[in-house]
């Protein structure tokens, strides 16, 4: 049977009186309470034009999980609701001094307060009772496992600070029926939550802020309270497991630049480092958050470090090819390479070229020229005179063979000298390129290290 609004006003006007009590019984009688239970489908207000005011407060007890990929925050709240029930009023003096009783929540009207960001079923344990004061004020405490949507920003991971919103309001009742307001100040709720969240693992509560607002949809309006829960991550786990091992590997790679560029062991050493760094990233991949909104700066840092390792290996291969391939074929250093590398880049990186003093082999060909004995008439005559006419015919071919051998030795020494000069030039080109990449390597690593340290300092002092 449906009741009209007029019938409800008449019924409530006749019912609006204090609960009855009997002598020898503590609290209101069961019959008077049963009359209230029978009307649990109606909002407990004598005048339905007056909205029921619901006061809300909560304590953030734990942060159960943060899923960056699905943008979901899972928390555990102690929720407390207060509202006024106009039909649950009694006189404590008539009821043996009882000022507060507990009643089953299923037998009373309760405000339909929800969290608008809720995205999953509530699997938390419900409290079956409420406390009712003799003045008609009801307190309902319950535990709430809140799975809510949150716009998570992971760019500054693991030094990130997240700001998630909890919007409390009525699901069906508009502002004309149910009004909501905070039961405690936001500072008190923030202080209570900090006391319980101190030992909550990875996350630390910064502050809880909030404000009351009105949600308008079409012609209807709903009264809401928006809480901003600001939490920050404790980064020590990721610093120990990610940043410090990566820094050690990068330090070893930097020290590998002090190996001779033309050494084959340097290339194999860098390949071993790249392999180890890749395995390290694969093992630690589960610790890095993944989302389509962006990449954390620590992921960019690891990618840049890996890229620098690969570039340093390629540079070692190029320098090895320059020093071994070009110098062994006695190729001249191109003019543009001498101008660009030996000129501009050498001055840019403050590379000091050793003074090219005249080398000793350069004078030997001139000296060997004095050793060449050209056959002439006086020499032949002198040799013929001393040895006799029988040996003069055999002496001239021997001297010619000696001159031929000396010329071959001279050309060989000249070729060796030229090869040493080319090798020296290509060595300088390789060293300058090696120094240039080493400076760029240090600059980039220092730049990223300063950024991460600054982010850590901002996290500490925020």
UniProtKB/TrEMBL annotation:
Catalytic activity: K(+)(in) = K(+)(out); Na(+)(in) = Na(+)(out); Ca(2+)(in) = Ca(2+)(out)
Annotated keywords: Cell membrane, Disulfide bond, Glycoprotein, Ion channel, Ion transport, Ligand-gated ion channel, Membrane, Postsynaptic cell membrane, Receptor, Signal, Synapse, Transmembrane, Transmembrane helix, Transport
Subcellular location: Postsynaptic cell membrane
General function of this protein: Forms serotonin (5-hydroxytryptamine/5-HT3)-activated cation-selective channel complexes, which when activated cause fast, depolarizing responses in neurons.
Main localization, broad class: membrane
Gene Ontology CC: postsynaptic membrane
Molecular function GO terms recorded: extracellular ligand-gated monoatomic ion channel activity; transmembrane signaling receptor activity
Membrane-spanning segments: 236-259, 271-288, 300-324, 440-461
InterPro entries assigned to the protein according to its UniProt record, in alphabetical order: LGIC_TM_5-HT3, Neur_chan_lig-bd, Neur_chan_lig-bd_sf, Neur_channel, Neuro-gated_channel_TM_sf, Neuro_actylchol_rec, Neurotrans-gated_channel_TM, Neurotransmitter_ion_chnl_CS
Family indicated by similarity: Belongs to the ligand-gated ion channel (TC 1.A.9) family.
rRNA processing among keywords: no
Pfam families: Neur_chan_LBD (PF02931), Neur_chan_memb (PF02932)
Domain Neurotransmitter-gated ion-channel ligand-binding: from-to ranges: 33-235
NCBIfam families assigned to the protein according to its UniProt record, in alphabetical order: LIC
Topology of the protein relative to the lipid bilayer: Multi-pass membrane protein
Domain of life according to the entry: Eukaryota
Sequence ranges assigned to domain Neurotransmitter-gated ion-channel transmembrane in this UniProt record: 242-452
Protein name: 5-hydroxytryptamine receptor 3A
């Amino acid at each position: 049977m449906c009741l009209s609004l007029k019938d409800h006003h008449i019924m409530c006007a006749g019912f609006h009186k204090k609960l009855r009590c009997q002598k020898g019984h503590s609290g209101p009688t069961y019959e008077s309470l049963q009359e209230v239970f029978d009307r649990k489908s109606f909002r407990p207000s004598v005048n339905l034009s007056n909205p029921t005011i619901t006061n809300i407060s909560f304590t953030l007890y734990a942060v159960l999980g943060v899923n960056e990929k699905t943008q979901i925050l899972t928390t555990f709240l102690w929720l407390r609701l207060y509202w006024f029930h106009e039909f649950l009023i009694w006189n404590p003096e008539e009821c043996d001094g009882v000022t507060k009783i507990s009643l089953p929540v299923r037998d009373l009207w309760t405000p339909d307060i929800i969290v608008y960001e809720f995205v999953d079923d509530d699997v938390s344990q419900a409290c079956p009772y409420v406390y009712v004061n003799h003045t008609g004020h009801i307190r309902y405490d319950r535990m709430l496992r809140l799975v809510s949507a949150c716009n998570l920003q992971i760019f500054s991971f693991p030094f990130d600070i997240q700001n998630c919103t909890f919007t409390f309001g009525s699901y069906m009742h508009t502002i004309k029926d149910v009004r909501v307001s905070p039961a405690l100040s936001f500072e008190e709720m923030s202080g209570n939550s900090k006391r319980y969240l101190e030992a909550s693992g990875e996350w630390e509560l910064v502050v809880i802020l909030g404000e009351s607002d009105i949600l308008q949809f079409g012609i209807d309006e709903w009264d809401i309270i928006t809480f901003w829960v600001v939490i920050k991550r404790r980064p020590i786990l990721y610093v120990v497991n990610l940043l410090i091992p990566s820094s050690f590997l990068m330090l070893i790679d930097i020290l590998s630049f002090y190996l001779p560029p033309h050494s084959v062991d340097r290339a194999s050493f860098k390949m071993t480092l790249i392999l180890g760094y890749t395995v390290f990233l694969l093992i630690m991949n589960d610790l890095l958050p993944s989302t389509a909104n962006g990449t954390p700066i620590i992921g960019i840092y690891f990618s840049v470090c890996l890229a620098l390792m690969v570039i340093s290996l390629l540079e070692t291969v190029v320098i090895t090819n320059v020093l071994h391939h070009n110098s062994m074929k006695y190729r001249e250093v191109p003019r543009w390479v001498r101008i660009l590398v030996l000129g501009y880049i050498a001055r840019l990186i403050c590379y000091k070229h050793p003074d090219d003093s005249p080398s000793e082999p350069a004078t030997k060909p001139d000296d060997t020229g004095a050793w060449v004995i050209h056959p002439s008439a006086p020499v032949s005559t002198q040799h013929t005179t001393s040895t006799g006419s029988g040996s003069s015919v055999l002496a001239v071919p021997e001297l010619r063979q000696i001159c031929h051998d000396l010329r071959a030795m001279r050309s060989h020494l000249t070729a060796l000298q030229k090869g040493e000069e080319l090798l020296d030039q290509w060595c300088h080109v390789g060293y300058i390129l090696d120094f240039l990449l080493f400076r760029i390597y240090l600059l980039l690593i220092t730049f990223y290290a300063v950024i991460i340290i600054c982010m850590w300092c901002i996290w500490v002092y925020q």
